[in-house]
User: Fold this.
Amino acid sequence: MAKITFITKDQETIVAEADSGSVMELAVAHNVKGIDADCGGVCSCATCHVHVAADYMDKLEAAGEIEKDMLEFADNASDFSRLSCQMKITEAMDGMVLNVAN
Amino acid sequence: MSESISSESICLIIGASHAGVNAAFALRKEGWTGSIQLYDADPLLPYHRPPLSKAYLSGGDEIEKHLLKSAQSYEKEQIDLHLGAKVSAIDPKEKKITLANGRSQVYDKLVMATGARAFIPPIPGIEKTTHLFTMRTAEDSIQIRKALDQHEQKRVLIIGGGYIGLETAASLRKLGAEVTVLEREERLLARVTAPELSQFFQALHQSNEVQILTGKNVVAAKTTPSHTEIICADGSRYIADIIVVGVGIRVNTELAAEADLVIENGIRVDSAARTSDQDIYAIGDCTLHYNPHYKRFIRLECVQNAVDQAKIAAAAICGKEATYDSIPWFWSDQYDVKLQITGLSTGYQEALVRKEEGEAVRFSIWYFREDELLAVDAINHARAYMLGMKFLKTGQKIDKTKLLDPKVELKPANILQQ
Ligand SMILES: Cc1cc2nc3c(=O)[nH]c(=O)nc-3n(C[C@H](O)[C@H](O)[C@H](O)COP(=O)(O)OP(=O)(O)OC[C@H]3O[C@@H](n4cnc5c(N)ncnc54)[C@H](O)[C@@H]3O)c2cc1C
Ligand code: FES
Assistant:
């Protein structure tokens, strides 16, 4: 089980738990604002963009080529950017804090 | 604000798919405090449509994996969702709608998000076949899977080599079907892409053992209890257990027409998504709208347009200034290939193909009218797609020689005109 905290642009904090699926699916299930996931999770829209707390960056599986390219030119991109639809929930994410990028 | 929103005001939305659902949530975000009522004839919780021909068809997931919003999100935002509820009439004078079950409901603001339905061409004999399917709703996708399970031979004929037909072909191939695609034009995707991309997809499907036949105009269908025979104008005949028709859509404009809204190849709306009736807005696949980048009226069938127009309409309904001026974008996933498109290539004079070095299949097609970039099609190449979108937004001019040189890295500083 991984407990993940989402902080939205208007500073709403939502804590949610899951042991499978993607981080985007978890966010959508909990109505996290700013995770629109317009493409439904296929790495085509960048509307599921989050900033990962620094201490969790190396606990995540590296981003694939398409995700990296989508992020390079996305709005509000930083070194801590990820597309949450490409983040498969693992135990290692327990306690992770994510700031919604848009 | 031009009008005050009272907590008694009712915004009623017909159609709870990409456009309607996004409009409902955007209304709350923009400060609509009145009631929001969403109606859809489909009985399922609103879902993403693109996976219907892709992961949902091939993966056998539950539809719950593809919901637009969770059930609790509607409750949390106080959006009243009426599913399995078909709207049968609008009375713009009385400002009310009537449902198929006879009930009626008044509104202050109405949003038409009625989208489109699959079109079945009037081919003689086609109405009699029991093996015929379309691809528009979750139920369509479920029925195709069921039919496939029932047939040992799994011979599938897809009429129409557009995106939906090709995605369906790829997904059914994954499920072990024997797939043939019949396309009327001389090449696949003829009306939407350059010949290079048509050739690429033809080869991709052929290498996955899907038979692609172009120049095939279907003129008749003959059905027996076990299968259907399809006959083409050139006399060729094909036998199939399952036929999927993917030849396009018809816009759902009947309600709007009866309400006397202006319709031209879609419900005509202004830049704030308002129809010819002050209190009625229209969004998504059902609209004909002006695109300021391309300086013409267009009708689009894509998620981007549904979502972006929904946000504009919501802002306008809440009395804010809002103008629709998005750059369209679209994607298609077939096998392990991702196509991403930004812009509209219609009317292009030149299609430049940039191939990247290396073994992986990765290229992009840049469509120009003289110096003006119109669109980019990117194959496994999100960088080209994102850059293309950026250049379309800013209108920056591209150095075509550098663009075509794979040794020049694809970066704004490298390929923009100095
Ligand atoms: C198989 C498939 C694959 C696709 N793939 C992609 C893709 O990869 N990328 C992309 O960008 N786009 C894709 N699209 C297109 C995209 O799904 C549409 O552009 C999008 O669904 C449009 O949303 P909409 O809300 O405007 O209309 P629709 O999705 O058509 O929804 C309209 C809704 O209105 C309801 N309705 C209509 N009339 C009434 C009535 N009288 N009463 C009650 N309810 C009514 C319908 O039941 C329906 O749910 C795909 C479409 C299909 C079918
Ligand atoms: S949901 Fe579209 S990129 Fe993640």
